[in-house]
Amino acid sequence: MDLLDARRAGIGLTGLYAMTPAASVSGLILAHPPSRYFAVGGIGRDQVEDYAARKAATVNEVERWLRPNLSYDPAA
Questions:
Q1: How far apart are the first and last CA of the chain?
Q2: Distance of CA 11 to the CA centre of its chain
Q3: How far from 28 is each of 25, 31, CA to CA, in Å?
Q4: Half-sphere CA count of 29, side-chain side, radius 13 A
Q5: Is the peptide bond before 21 cis (omega within 30 degrees of 0)?
Q6: Shortest CA distance to 60 belongs to which of 38, 42, 71, 45?
Q7: How confident is the prediction along the chain (76 residues), in pLDDT tens digits per residue?
Q8: Which of 21, 33, 45, 52 could form a disulfide with 62 if both were Cys (CB 3.0 to 4.6 A apart)?
């Protein structure tokens, strides 16, 4: 925390070393030449329908929650 001057960014530690505010994230990033990176594809309509059924929500609600991650245009 001192090395990164985290307090200047408004980040601190609790007595049990949890970061505050709660949305703060830290990590060690290590690179290796043969590393491969990948992205997960968008969420399909069948997945949205399944999730809506399991959450007892409407498809429209779930589409609103997940809009940035959808692989389709819900308006179409």
A1: 48
A2: 20
A3: 11, 10
A4: 2
A5: yes
A6: 45
A7: 888 898 999 999 999 989 999 888 888 888 899 988 888 899 999 999 999 999 999 999 999 999 999 999 999 8
A8: 52
